[in-house]
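Limitations

Structures in this collection are predictions, not experimental determinations, and the ligand pose is part of the prediction. Treat each record accordingly. The example that follows, with adenosine-5'-triphosphate as the small molecule, is included so readers can see exactly what is and is not provided: the inputs are given verbatim, and the output is the predicted complex.
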Amino acid sequence: MSLLMVEGLDKAFGGVIAARAVSFALEAGELLAVIGPNGAGKSTVFNIIGGQLRPDAGRVVLAGDTITGLAPRAVWRKGLGRTFQVAQTFISMSVTENVQMALMSWHGEAASLTASAAGLRRAEAIGLLGLVGMAEAADRPISALAYGDVKRVELAIALAGEPKLLLMDEPTAGMAPKERAALMQLVAGLARERKIGVLFTEHDMAAVFGHADRILVLMHGEVIASGPPDAVRRDPKVRDVYLGESGLAAANAAGTAP
Amino acid sequence: MDLPFLVTQSLSGLASASSLFIISCGLTIVFGVTRIVNFAHGSFYMLGAYLAVSIVPRLLDLHYSLPMFLAGIVAAAVVVGLVGVVMEVVLLRRIYRAPELFQLLATFGVVLVIEDLVVTFWGPLDLMGARAPGMRGAVDILGNRFPVYQLFLIGTGVLVLALLWLLMHRTRYGVLVRAATQDREMVGALGVNQAILFTGTLFLGSFLAGLGGALQSPLIAANSHMDIAIIAEAFVVTVIGGMGSVPGAFLAALLIGQLQAFGILIVPKATLVLVFALMAVVLIVKPWGLLGRPEAPATRAAPEGIANLKPFGRVERIAAVLALGVALLLPVFGDAYLVKLGTEILIFALAAFSLNLLLGNGGIVSFGHAAYFGIGAYAAGLLAIRLGMAMLPALMLAPIVAGLFAALFGVFIVRLSGIYLAMLTLAFAQIAYAVAFQWVGLTGGDNGILGIWPPDWASGRTAYYYLVLVFAVAAIAALRHAIYAPFGATLRAARDSAVRADAIGIDVKLYRLAAFALAGAAAGLAGALYAFANGSIDPTLLAIPLSIDMLAMTLAGGIQTVIGPLVGAAAFHTAKDFFMPLTDYWRLLLGLAIIAMVLAAPQGLAGGWARLRSRFSGAPA
Ligand SMILES: Nc1ncnc2c1ncn2[C@@H]1O[C@H](COP(=O)(O)OP(=O)(O)OP(=O)(O)O)[C@@H](O)[C@H]1O
Ligand SMILES: [Mg+2]
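Predicted complex:
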């Protein structure tokens, strides 16, 4: 059975249809990219899976458990870690404190009135920061980081809950091209090594076609194509409505890159 | 209960609904456009009543007729509208982008200023307005007498609703108002028009408040306390109706009017409990009110409150030890006055510190923290006097009672956020106040209860001072520990980003509720200590002005720091104790000080220190 099964998601905001009959599955260790133009419904689908939004219809199954309509905190307990399109961090805290907070929560220590929060799970937090290349910035205020670095810290936060599934909504936004490739490399490595399923969206076609195992194309809330990168690249509908000239060039470049 | 009686009862319900609506819709329109909850709206209502008392008889002297009466009422309302314009231009313009807390405080500063000015101009006595020519009698309705003026009020309410509808739907100004209410982004795009829109809205809102007050002047004597009473009622109406919604205000006013008219038949002394029950039911079903819409979570760059929590440095540690030393030795070198002052400072320091657990640490803007202080005081006083309980057990139980009430109110409060949450804390506090005021049999009503003294061993000033010192320092140390513990960090996390907190397994509402109960319990302990220090309790201990005092202390010290509220409580209470006997204008001065603080130094005293410290240590601020 697949790690994540999404079946027939519908979601409308007033008259705007943000998702219609969206279905797909994702295996452990697999990277699935969701692409589509602005407003296609990518974030909506992510938010339904993460519990931030309730679907009008449909079902989400994570590792055999139905999680449709559960609160985000419950979904996290079931093994979902995520990053947001607009990074969500604890802006008044330092970089490590952000990760420590997630670790405290994961280990059921967040409600403690007796311990002191300052040193709690610090070593572990720095370990996770090392993984995403942010260990040197551990004690800086997170508000002082460049946006790309904040996104990395968000990844470390998401990893604190030992997730089975990672949702990453535009993980490389705000990064330079070289950084993007490095981050995607890192995520792909983690996915393979830890058998984590990764669902991500990107507007950067090089990141998508270079790293995804499979690609799902959304358009006006509907899945218009899905399959391995090569198939999606060749799909005439996708070329027409989404990729265009420059996207195609980037996709091709990524495909032919070693 | 026959039909004619029910009809007249329902009509008098409509009359009070109509007055409530006229006042509340002004508040809600101003909020819709400016996103500022204007505390001074109640003061404008009061001003309207006083102005009508002065203007209407002069006009009636010229010509005794109904049109002259009406002209006087409208003139009073127009003057109030102009006062609103002045307030917009001088004050509000500078704080549209400030955090809600500062906005509320600034407008409350205006309340204090107006209160003192009103007493200066019109004197301390209640003043009855002139009655309307031709509307002094009553008419026969199904065999019952019903006052004509009440019918006139009903008609006025309907007329105001109709005119507002026309204004909102048939004029360009109205289109702008509605657009601004629905879409914040749009306001920024207005450019020059924005200033006109906001000033115009303040005129309209204040005019309506003044109209409401002027219309009441023949019925209720104008007095300098009517501002707070009415603003609390108007808050309840807007909370039930949904903030920013005129039809919501209308609906809520109708409901409350009828509930009061008929509730008084079923439970004569507990109409407030009914209003409370209505509010609770509405908020359970619709947390944002009948016709309100959820407020989109504010996306602020940096949160207000404790940021970047650090353990005490050497300087702070030395200062803390010094302060504790001074506190311990105070009775040795100080006279009776200083010991009394010290006792009160310790008590308010605990209260302000508990408030900052919510404010600075949790981002929960409580405008009714005195409620829990007062509930603690009443619990201690009632346990001691009515049940004959000894002081120490009463001091132990009082915080539990206050904590339980905080938890009960908190269930509703933590479902909301931002300004809505602040309004609800205030509404609950006002209900607690009203219960203490109305339930004379239990609480002694306005007079309160006297004779709450400590037992012999603690009855000396010095002995009681040390008792307070032990309790207050222990409670403050415990709260401080909670702030540094994971619990406190989790609260700050939820404050910074509720979305992120939820996505890492944190039940944000549950934590806020726990914080609310904890802070309520600590405030309750402070209140209980105060009851035994003063020997008496009365409703002012739960009233809005005390809530504001606590906020002023906390902000004066700085909500960005852990110890700020302690510094603020000491400074504020010392100043109050020193200046209040010297001047008749304490409220005016306090009001101006609050406004100045909001405009000039929102970081507070200890916040300034923190900035100095980071500047000298070279770390980025
Ligand atoms: N909370 C909301 N209320 C109303 N409409 C919404 C809401 N969230 C999303 N929408 C609408 O739903 C549609 C899908 O939005 P969504 O954010 O899922 O798109 P997206 O594919 O993530 O776009 P982008 O690439 O710009 O991030 C859009 O038309 C958007 O305006
Ligand atoms: Mg998106």
